[in-house]
Amino acid sequence: MEKHFLEVKNLNVSFHTYAGEVKAVRGVSFTLEEGEALAIVGESGCGKSVTAKAVMGLVQRTNGVVKPGSQILYRGENILDYNKKQWQAYKGGECAIIFQDALVSLNPTMRVGKQIMENLMAHKHMNRREARQEAIRMLRVVGIPEPERRVDQYPHEFSGGMRQRVMIAIAFACDPKILICDEPTTALDVTIQGQILDIIKQLQRERNTSVIMITHDLGVVANMAQKIAVMYSGIIVERGSCEDIFYRPRHPYTWALIRSVPRLDLSNKQTLASIPGTPPDLLNPPAGCPFCTRCEHCMNICKEQMPEYTDFGDGHQAACWLHHPMAPKVKMPEKGEVIHG
Q1: Interatomic CA distance for residues 263 and 58, integer angstroms
Q2: How many helices and strands, by DSSP H and E, does the chain display?
């Protein structure tokens, strides 16, 4: 049986609230190979970040529960069975994460150099002097000027873009095998976004790091990922290569998501495309396809039963009843019709 570098199987994550059980992630499965970049895209609240935190082992910290039957296999071993010592080696050492808000993620009372050094001393067993020199080197690598001086500064003395560079330095300091980027450019302006993504891509190539990019920005996806998983209401509705998703999308939600991206070739007063309706309540998720209430092609079966994945070859799959032999024929977008037409 083929072993993947990282394989998530039937991941189910719930949160117990005063109103009941919120089923945030429902049966999510995907694979990630060494040195590969996978993007998980979808609207806010679809379960992207919860999936990422489960891979990082952070769900329990937010009162979440990974349900029995879920598997997260790293090099063939289920990390959900790790003991405390194995978790300590995995978090920050084997797997690192960059959050979207660096000011919240960084400790405001601690110098940035010390925050990088902590990781190095814990995982690389460096002494204080070695860790400080490596922290300075990492700050230089991520493009922070005068790292010898800035290593002793506090997070509030850095701009938003510089703080995100510090987060990248912390994440890459211990040479992780998996890097999770949870919307790392959301709070930054466009020019800084490009710089941050370039740094991540360069370090990924140099170190052969596997990357999971969590985002709702399809522009980020196009330049970063080899594979894309489109997520809606806690479920992956379509997965495939970057080219498959952009030029041969096979799920109505993917079509709508791509259509909603602003286009440069439209006139100034052109109405932006949007997806009508709202996502379903995950306290009581629907029995059928979760997108059925917002889909113009909805049939009765869509409301009653979740469809199986249809395989289009080379790992391209979509869960939609339109691909059933008995479904009415709907013209699928081809060769960028969603983007250009």
Answers
A1: 37
A2: 13, 13
Cβ-contact 149, 141 below 8 angstroms: no
CA distances from 113 to 91, 130, 303 (A): 19, 12, 54
The Cα–Cα gap between 226 and 31 comes to 12
pLDDT one-digit tens code per residue, 174-212: 999 999 999 888 778 888 888 999 999 999 999 999 999
B/e letters for 183-222, b = 16+ CB within 10 Å, e = fewer, are bbbebbeeebbebbbebbeebbeeeebbbbbbbbebebbe
Using CA atoms, how far residue 102 sits from 132, 168, 185, 205, 291, in Å, is: 21, 10, 10, 23, 33
163: left (phi over 0), alpha (psi -120 to 50) or beta: alpha
Model-level pTM greater than 0.85? yes
Burial bucket for residue 13 (CB in 10 Å: 0-12, 13-18, 19+): buried
Q: 225 in helix, strand or coil?
A: coil
Rg from Cα positions in the chain? 21
